[in-house]
Amino acid sequence: MAAANRRHRRSRSAGEKWIEHRAQNPVPLGTVLQPYLKNRKSITKLTDMKDLTGHNANKYMLVSQEADTDGDVETKLFKGNIVPTCGGGAQVIFDDVECLKQKSPVPSPNRKRPINTDNGGILSNIGTTVSALSALTSLNSANDVASRCNVGIEGHTVKRTKV
To answer: Region labeled Disordered — which residues (predicted)?
Structure first.
């Protein structure tokens, strides 16, 4: 970690200059609610360190877009302050995260099928048997995952003595 001047503060009359770091081809959201930065410089690749070390920028925002489990677009905005280091460089101290989710107007189909019951008939008994089997299977899979994680953490299953 680079040493930074914790008491560094820009003049309040200078205003905020943002550096917005985003992907080369962001997914266009097409919504009304967009993040708006009045005084910004948008970059796709941080190749020139003078963008950070120069005296004109004091705020940094990293924009990340990813798809969530439902197939909707989730945009995360990581915001931070640019603080000069004593070696002449700069470091970014992140202090805020905004999560923007865009849901599809058409709901995704439910992947689970409902269990048909006929008030105590054969199908309800099958349902209880299936739930008992699924609980047993999940217990076995939990033990299997625990044993695999144990091997993954240890790195080997048999301990060897040092020669």
So the answer is: 1-21
Measured CA to CA, the distance from residue 43 to residue 113 in angstroms comes to 47
- Between 96 and 133, name the one with better pLDDT: 96
Interatomic CA distance for residues 52 and 62, integer angstroms? 13
Structure tokens at 136: 């047993």
**Dist. CA 59–CA 19, nearest whole Å:** 6
49, 47, 46: which is closest to 63 by C-alpha? 46
DSSP H or E segment with residue 83: strand 73-84
* pTM as predicted: 0.56
Give the tens place of pLDDT for each residue, 129-150. Answer: 445 555 555 555 656 656 655 5
Q: Which tokens belong to 129?
A: 């048997």
Q: Residue 47's CB: how many other CB atoms inside 10 A?
A: 7
Give the other-Cβ count within 10 Å of 25's Cβ: 8
Strand partners, 77: 63, 98
Query: Rounded CA gap, 41 and 17, in Å?
Result: 8
**Three-class SS of residue 136?**
helix
